[in-house]
Amino acid sequence: MFAVYRELEGSTRLAAHVLRRFWVLRFPPVMEELVRQIYFTGASATATIVVRGAFIGTLIIAYVIEVLEADAALAVKMLLWVVLREVGPLIAAVLVIQRSGTAVATELALMKISGEVDSLRHLRIDPQDHLVVPRVLGIALSLAALTLYVQFIAVGGGMVLSALVIDASFSELASNFFLLASPLDLAYSIVKSLLFGGAIGVIACYYGLNPPGRSINAVPKAAINAVSQSTIAVMIINVVFAYLAYGVALFGLFTAKL
Amino acid sequence: MSELPTRVEEARQMALGYEAPPEGPSGRLWIPSGTGHRAAPVSQAFKQRLVDALLDLEPQPGARLAVLGADAGGLAARERQALRARIAFLPANGGMISNLNGWENIVLPLGYRDAKRVNAAFPKVHALIERLGGHPRALLAKLPEEMTLYEKKLAGYVRILLEAPELVVAENLAGGLEPEDRRRTAAFPAAYHAERPDGVFVQLDDAPDD
Q1: How far is CA A233 from CA A3, A184, A229, A247, in A?
Q2: Element at A6 (helix H, strand E)
Q3: Does the pLDDT value for residue B7 go beyond 70?
Q4: What pLDDT score was predicted for residue A27?
Q5: Which of A177, A204, A258, B150 is the most buried (most CB within 10 A)?
Q6: Residue B164: phi, psi to the nearest 5?
Q7: Which helix (H) or strand (E) holds B200?
């Protein structure tokens, strides 16, 4: 129980540090780290993530059409409710956890164990400024961008499949979709993605900088902890968001048109 | 032990003074001001305590630390920060950051403290590496995992020379090196004093019992 409290407190402190010190991006070395992180998490992962997103989006629509014997209106609603708002950000988050969460936790744990974090301190550079701020912001921004790609591909793939299976043209589905969708839907998923990314980044950095030991065996443990805790954090954020959107707090805001 | 404050007040004669607290590995290191010194702490544990205290400028409870004539124990946070900016430490492994190449490692502190100087520093970095027996083009492009121990120490040292602070503490400078590279490290203090003639260069060797 104490360990959970300590980890929660440590992650919260790290998140507060990022919010308080994001201005360190004006230093060239921090900006370079941010660009590296965006390249690794966002650019170099795009192809993999988009392909998986397209498969999953199409698969969901295929099941919905088959099981619910959906018509065009229901297929579009499913695309909006399930794929755009929920599955898009979640798929992107899970893939980023698998790829970047493990990479960041492993890299930082190795740096900690090999004394590189202390080397930064010797140089009068705050390790959290140099290592944590660009990684957290890089993962958050990349995840938001990847979510957009996944949504675009998954919704597009779903519409193409729907047009082939049910008695509705692609243009009819698309016009229905754009009639129902609002900019708020996009804002909802982007804000959620930024929070997912921030949480994944903070948790990966926390476990990387606090490996459970000083031996090389601590490195995979740090990565495992980062992945499992990031997944839980993403699920919790998703539940809170769903409650805010569909529950009491903002009831009707998103569902009015539907 | 009571002599230390008096000595600190007496002059700027002392570069580095440390007296370990009674608990744990004990010892005392007393380095007067001057251009160069070589010291071997009594034990590795004592050395570690000294280095920790020096880098944080926060002596452990019961310990005494004096740096560049100032009693670190009596400093306010801001004064401590200012004093810390006058000190550089070269760890035995060179202190490289593994995901940065030689050039990025060398200019890393400048990027934080004086970014405008980064590009202008290239000719100077080139000249310093050559002077200390390295191959600039190769070294600047290498990642730390591709460097020899000497190259890591060299890159770490050139990084310090770009700022040339008043006190440089080099940990076990020649340790673990081939004879030829050991000879090259003999030129390190002179390169520092060419940048800062009044600076103090301290070589902190390994303890004799280690």
Answers
A1: 16, 23, 6, 20
A2: helix A2-21
A3: no
A4: 96
A5: A204
A6: 40, 70
A7: strand B200-204
Identify which of B91, B113, B118 has the shortest CB distance to residue A119.
B91
Give the sheet arrangement for strand B167-171, strand by strand.
B36-39, B200-204, B167-171, B87-90
What span, in angstroms and rounded, lies between the C-alpha atoms of A59 and A53? 10
Distance CA B51, CA B46 (A): 9
Q: Measured between alpha carbons, how far is A89 from B166 in angstroms, rounded to an integer?
A: 53
Distance from CA of A231 to the nearest CA of B (A): 27
Contact B89 A122 (CB under 8 A): yes
Token pair recorded at residue A244:
């805010």
Q: Using one digit for the tens of pLDDT, what is the confidence trace for B51-85?
A: 988 988 887 888 888 888 888 888 888 999 999 99
Q: Are the Cβ atoms of A110 and B98 closer than 8 angstroms?
A: yes
HEC readout, A157-222? HHHHHHHHHCCCCHHHHHHHHHHHCCHHHHHHHHHHHHHHHHHHHHHHHHHHHCCCCCCCCHHHHH
Q: How confident is the model at residue A258 (pLDDT cuts 50, 70, 90)?
A: very low
Edge-first strand order for the sheet with B14-19 is B28-32, B14-19, B64-67, B70-71
Strand ranges (E), chain A:
none
Q: Answer whether B100's CB lies under 8 Å from A130's CB.
A: no
- The dihedrals phi and psi of B143, each to the nearest 5 degrees, come to -85, 155
Q: What is the pLDDT of residues B151-197, one digit of tens each?
A: 999 999 999 999 999 999 999 999 889 999 999 999 999 999 999 99
d(CA A106, CA A27): 25
> Using CB atoms, which residue from A116, A118, A124 is nearest to B109?
A124
pTM of the model: 0.88
pLDDT at residue B137, as a whole number: 95
Only one residue has tokens 């002599």, namely B3
How high is the ipTM of this complex? 0.87
pLDDT for B10 equals 44
Q: What tokens does A134 get?
A: 């660009």
> What SS3 class is residue B205?
coil
CA distance A183 to A155: 15
